[in-house]
Specification:
The complex is a heterodimer.
Chain A: E1 4-6, E2 9-13, E3 18-24, E4 31-37, E5 43-50, E6 55-58, E7 61-66, E8 71-76, E9 85-92, E10 100-102, E11 106-111
Parallel strand pairs in A: 2-11
Antiparallel strand pairs in A: 1-3, 3-8, 4-5, 4-9, 6-7, 7-8, 9-10, 9-11
Chain B: E1 5-7, E2 10-13, E3 19-24, E4 31-38, E5 42-50, E6 53-57, E7 64-68, E8 74-78, E9 87-94, E10 102-103, E11 107-111
Parallel strand pairs in B: 2-11
Antiparallel strand pairs in B: 1-3, 3-8, 4-5, 4-9, 5-6, 7-8, 9-10, 9-11
Classes of the chains: A mainly beta, B mainly beta.
Chain lengths: ~110, ~110
């Protein structure tokens, strides 16, 4: 089945690292994504990882994938107040259909 | 490079009316996707168009329909509007069924 779960809320202090977690159920997922949504805006693609990879690093962002446990995480190093937003993980299931299945989103609040 | 654009930004309709939402993909992108972000329901896949054809649709009634034009822009039509259709409608595009979907800012539809 297709189900993606995330914790609802995370609060960190500026300069700390943030870790946002996600679990998914569809073992046929080929790509997993992290999107950012700021208030009143659309979704910004942050990064994605192919399902045969364990880790991907992109500047302050590190994605870890545990395919056995179907667990995905996004680590943001040196979190800034501008990182405050809702973060969605998503999986692309069954490449023939191209749709993304999104998690519920994690609201990240960064305090000074 | 211009991103995905959507119009209008906001749309207010009354129950029973029809709504038309428009999307222009990133130049060169041939696939267009529509998603609904409703309060409490998260982001849900609506429709996928590629090369002018509907390729996949989500679990939505037939009164949600659309089309893709020869220039790859797309229209989403919602007939017989219901109160629960109030949501942010997001359009995304990708290059040739590619792995990256880039989102526009959305159209906020309010049904009174």
């Amino acid at each position: 089945g297709e189900d993606v779960e995330q914790s609802l809320f995370l609060s960190v202090r500026e300069g700390d690292s943030s870790v946002i977690n996600c679990t998914y159920t569809d073992s046929s997922s080929t790509y997993l994504y992290w999107y950012k949504q700021e208030p009143g805006a659309g979704l910004q693609l942050l990064t994605y990882i192919f399902s045969n990879m364990d880790m991907k690093q992109d500047q302050r962002l590190t994605v870890l994938l545990n395919k056995k446990d179907k667990h995905l995480s996004l680590r943001i190093a040196d979190t800034q107040t501008g990182d405050s937003a809702i973060y969605f993980c998503a999986e692309r299931v069954n490449t023939g259909f191209q749709k993304l299945v999104f998690g519920t989103g994690t609201r990240l609040l960064v305090s000074p | 490079e211009a991103g995905v654009t959507q119009s209008p930004t906001h749309l207010i309709k009354t129950r029973g009316q029809q709504a038309t939402l428009r999307c222009s993909p990133i130049s060169g992108h041939t696939s267009v996707y529509w998603y609904q972000q409703a309060l409490g329901l998260g982001l849900q896949f609506l429709l996928w168009y590629d090369e002018g054809e509907e390729r996949n649709r989500g679990n939505f009634p037939p009164r949600f329909s659309g089309r893709q034009f020869p220039n790859y822009s797309s229209e989403l039509n919602v007939n017989a509007l219901e109160l629960e259709d109030s949501a942010l409608y997001l359009c995304a595009s990708s290059l040739d069924r590619g792995r990256e979907q880039f989102f526009g800012p959305g159209t906020r539809l309010t049904v009174l």
